[in-house]
Every structure is written in C-alpha cells, then in structure tokens.
Write a sequence for this structure.
C-alpha cells in the first residue's frame, strides 16, 4: 500500500468509519512503514486530546484576551507597515479577507449571484466552471459560521447578530483590504 492510501485510511479511522478489511490493510502498512506509524501515533494523540472534555472549555476571559491580542496585532501592523514581512502578512490577510468576503457574499446571495453570472454572455462559461469551487467555498464559510456559533454559544440571538452585523463587516473589510493591497502593489 502507498503512504497516501494509508493516510486516507487514517483519516477514515479518525472519523470512525474504517472497515475491518481496511483496518487490516492499514495495520499491515504501519508495521512496515515508520513514517506512517509515527503519523498514526500523532493522530491518536490528537484524538485523545480532542476526546478530553476539558479541551473545549474556554476560560472566562477568553473573549477579552483574544480581542486584546487582535488589537495588538492591528497596532503592530500599522507601525511596521513598510517591513517586508509585514507586507507579506498584509497580502496574506488581504487575500484571506477577500476570499472570506466572497464566501460570505456567496452564502448570503449565492443563488442570485450565480444566476447573474451564468446568464452573462461573457462570464457564463467561466461561472459554470467555477460552480464546484463556489460550492466548496460556501460550504467552508458555512462551517466557519457554525463553528463561531458553537464557540460563542448556541443561542439563536448570537447567530442573528453574527449574520446581520459581523459578516457584512468582514465582507466590507475584505474588499477594503483588497484595495489597500492593490494600491500598495501599484506603489511598489
Ligand atoms: Zn507509509
């Protein structure tokens, strides 16, 4: 068995959907391949940590700590803007925000956006080929929304606040950062 196949089986094992036959195959490979054996033990360790209930319990000051750190990062970014590494991080952030912004818009307005693009005579073909990527992106953003809702508490109120306030803000931020990035690129 190839290591890539063993890796797939390890993923299935993590998800708890490994068949008896696959378990045998994986076991055989692990006895022959040290690299995969090491990886397997690392996965096992991860499962153990995740199954430990304490892992999920955020401390009471979690939110304020995170917010303070975000503020620090923002300040650093403003001061050291001209340092190359900061430019790189700005570009990465810009792209991330842009992709995230697009994803958010897709989640909110996927159907009308797609219909518009597919009907457009110039973009139609391109839009059709982009549909799988859009599906992945919008699924990812949906997962992220679910994660955020879980982290902040399952109340419906918080979800509504996220949807109505945070997500459009992030979307706008993404577009703004993209333009800043474009502007910086032109100036360089
Ligand atoms: Zn291997």
């Amino acid at each position: 068995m190839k290591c890539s196949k063993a890796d797939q089986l390890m993923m299935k094992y993590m998800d708890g959907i490994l068949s008896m036959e696959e378990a045998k195959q994986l076991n055989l490979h692990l006895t022959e391949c040290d690299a995969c054996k090491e990886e397997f033990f690392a996965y096992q360790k991860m499962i153990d940590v995740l199954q430990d209930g304490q892992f999920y319990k955020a401390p009471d000051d979690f939110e304020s700590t995170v917010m303070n750190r975000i503020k620090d990062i923002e300040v650093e970014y403003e001061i050291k803007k001209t340092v190359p590494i900061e430019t790189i991080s700005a570009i990465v952030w810009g792209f991330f925000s842009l992709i995230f912004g697009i994803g958010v818009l897709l989640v909110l307005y996927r159907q009308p956006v797609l219909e518009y693009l597919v009907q457009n005579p110039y973009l139609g073909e391109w839009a059709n080929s982009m549909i799988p990527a859009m599906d992945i992106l919008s699924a990812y953003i949906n997962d992220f929304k679910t994660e955020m809702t879980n982290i902040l508490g399952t109340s419906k109120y918080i979800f509504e606040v996220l949807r109505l306030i945070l997500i459009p803000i992030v979307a706008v931020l993404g577009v703004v950062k993209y333009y800043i990035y474009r502007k910086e690129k032109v100036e360089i």
Q: What stands out?
A: Residues 3, 6, 29, 33, 35-36 surround zinc ion (CB under 6 Å). The CA atoms of residues 15 and 117 lie 37 Å apart.
